[in-house]
Design a protein that fits this description.
The structure is a single chain. The chain is mainly α. It has one domain (35-335). It contains 15 helices and 2 strands. The chain has helices at 2-26, 36-63, 76-88, 90-105, 120-123, 125-128, 131-155, 157-167, 182-199, 203-221, 229-232, 239-245, 267-271, 289-292, 299-314, and strands at residues 325-327, 333-335. The protein has a two-stranded antiparallel sheet. Strand 1 (325-327) and strand 2 form a beta hairpin. Helix 2 (36-63) runs parallel beside helix 10 and helix 8 (157-167) packs antiparallel against helix 15. The longest helix has 28 residues, at 36-63. The termini are far apart.
Amino acid sequence: MDWLAHIWAVWVDWLAVHVIAPPALAAGLHAPGFDAHAVAATTAIVLLQVAVIAGVFRPLEALAPAERWPDRKLTRIDQIYTLLMLFGLFPIFSYLVIEPLIASFAGGGQASEGGVGLDLRHLIPWFDDHPLALLAFYYVVYDLTYYWMHRAQHLIPWWWALHSMHHSQRQMSCWSNDRGSYLDGILQSFILASVGVAMGVDIEQYAWLTLISELMQNLSHANVRLGFGPVLERVLVDPPFHRLHHMAVDERRPDLHNCNFGQVFSVWDRLFGTALYGEPVRPTGVTDPVVDADNGRNLVAMQWHTLRRFWCAIGCREGWRPGDVGFGSDYRPFPTGPTGKPL
């Protein structure tokens, strides 16, 4: 595999010299803290992710679709979201912003340089000598953090006002993972990147771990009927498992949709009682007409209407009371029963 590592290193070096460095220098980002090679490495990882989505997951949808649609018009906006979100590098940006802040707070961040050393490698020196164990432990903590954050996105009305746009898609596909409010994306990225910084994972390691998580989520959103089998599906999130999370509310069985919050590991849902298996394919989307209207909007309009829902929710009492909500024509949230109807 040395030849593959060599090709990757050459590709990253070329990006750093010819693509990243010139505009960075022009913009005045040639300060000592700016690492063109690190940015090039994360950019190369993003390009790899797009190639896997388009070259592997999309053909898989054509071969074994979970749902057959007369057209894929609603999926086009999600392709735009994916490209903008990935090349905007939200998680990497967050990491690059948070890491200097923590390093500054810690007096330099490195114990050898007089800093306190707040990250896990300094608190537990054993991890500093066992980087693979650190990565494995970090990934477990990262995924568990995502699970509880995801549950909060559904439970807290003002956060659901943002996250609901992600769930409004009626044609969920391999491009749907990055469909969402940019404000929601920033909040998620800061939370998850903070975990990486606190544990002492460097930027390139963080980028690779983010790639693994993102690819797993791209696959889990894919419109495919294939799963991982009776053993692996109890450990990892597969497309049938996550499709149940995106199901529209069924009035005959209204509690089914509050399930399957895991990002990569499905064990968290099993451990905390939110796992659902064995259900047939169900339509995805939301029954709230104010949120469902996102399907007829362009990207700018989707962001604007989502922010209006968020602004009205965060500024009123109902926006802070945990539970299912709908949104009125004035964008204010109101509590709903399990069927999505007003209480």
